[in-house]
Specification:
Oligomer: single chain
CATH architecture of the largest domain: Alpha-Beta Complex
Distance between the termini: 12 Å
Pfam families: ADH_N, ADH_zinc_N
GO molecular function: oxidoreductase activity
Radius of gyration: 20 Å
CATH superfamily of the largest domain: Medium-chain alcohol dehydrogenases, catalytic domain
Order of helices and strands: EEEHEEEHEEEHEHEHEHEHEHEHEHE
Strand content: 15-25%
Number of domains: 2
Structural class: alpha/beta
Keywords: NADP
Shape: globular
Organism: Candidatus Nitrosotalea okcheonensis
Domain Enoyl reductase (ER): 17-353
Length: 356
């Protein structure tokens, strides 16, 4: 079968040197696995990390791809809930299912956890014609949800749901700040916060602000401007007057890091929450501790999410309450262009790839 493979790292981000479409063996299912024909797969930033060999080295030769959707073509003898012909999407968080964390419903904290298509291999990911996963790591797709929408939602929607619902426990009427509203993560963050009845302020670059508003954000601010945080605070003051509450932000949805971090801490109300899952613009940040201890700030880490959270998001997609935003679609042969676009960040929503 055809697959997108690399056999060495590209720390200089020169993907053309390493990404090759190759012929590799077609998988057969283990007793607990399903094999599915990949219709489409979504790019994530861990694809970039994998090709750099940072922050961790990964198995070689390597097939990336954590988010894949397609139709089941074979099942193992122990599989009972998935059948040949089912339309499915991957849940890329591979966990042991038997440790304390897993049995408490925290499979994202499993010490044996691996991210499919990033830490797995050799040659085990979603950028191929046929992929295989344990039965517990696939979710059925409703008929009114497309393969493209499901693949675009797999990791980013699940992670966003876990951040806002599972970790921050957002409530109706809260003021929520979605950083990077034009990213795959941000587009879902906006919609989930609105689903829960929150007032949403999104930040993005200037060319994405109108799209954030169309997606449901109540306000949109250019976070590339030096005074973006002052604009956000002014908006929060106006909202506070309407709600007869104090100005500031109740929950900040953070995944970009860098120089914005300390400004974000300053924007929080007393007893408010910032939940973070990434640092695409830099992880070495400065924190003014006064914003933390004096205001009783809750700083929550978050990574991926549970299979049930993916199912919840897919359910609301089927009801038309959440939608995937697809920026562009490429074939495996155009993977260099796709990954370069993701690295440069000039996109709104998710980038997808198809075998051909």
């Amino acid at each position: 079968m055809k697959a997108l493979v690399y056999e060495k790292y590209a720390p200089d981000d020169d993907y053309e040197k390493i990404l090759k479409v190759m012929d590799v063996p077609e998988p057969t299912p283990k007793p607990n696995e399903v094999v599915f024909k990949v219709v489409t797969a979504g790019l994530n930033y861990d694809d970039i990390w994998g090709m750099r060999g940072k922050p961790i080295q990964i198995p070689m030769p390597h097939i990336s791809g954590t988010d894949a959707a397609g139709q089941v073509v074979a099942v193992g003898e122990d599989v009972s809930t998935i059948a040949v012909g089912d339309r499915i999407v991957s849940h890329g968080n591979l966990s042991c299912r038997v440790c304390v964390a897993c049995t408490e419903g925290r499979e994202y904290d499993c010490r044996y956890r691996k991210i499919w298509g990033f830490q797995t291999g050799p040659l085990w990911g979603g950028y191929c014609e046929y992929a295989h996963l344990p039965e517990m790591n696939v979710v059925k797709i409703p008929e009114n949800v497309s393969y493209e929408d499901a693949a675009a939602a797999s990791m980013t929607m699940t992670t966003s749901w876990h951040m806002l619902v599972g970790r921050a426990k957002i409530q109706p009427g809260q003021t929520v700040l979605i950083m990077g509203g034009g990213s795959g993560m941000g587009t879902f963050g906006i919609q989930i916060a609105k689903l829960y009845g929150c007032d949403v302020i999104a930040t993005a670059s200037s060319n994405k602000l109108e799209e954030c508003l169309k997606l449901g954000a109540d306000f949109a601010v250019d976070h590339r401007k030096e005074d973006w945080d002052k604009q956000v605070f002014t908006i929060s003051k106006d909202l506070a007057k309407q709600k007869q509450s104090s100005p500031g932000i109740d929950v900040i949805f953070e995944h970009i890091g860098g120089s914005h971090w300390n400004k974000e801490l300053a924007l929080l109300k007393y007893g408010a929450t910032i939940v973070t899952t990434g640092a695409t613009t830099g992880y070495d940040v400065i924190s003014d501790l006064r914003h933390i201890f004096f205001k009783g700030t809750n700083i929550l880490g978050s990574t991926q999410g549970t299979r049930s959270e993916l199912e919840s998001g897919i359910f609301w997609m089927s009801k038309g309450k959440i939608k995937s935003i697809v920026d562009s679609i490429y074939t495996f042969e155009n993977a260099v262009e796709a990954h370069t676009k993701m690295l440069q960040g000039n996109l709104f929503g998710k980038i997808l790839m198809k075998p051909g």
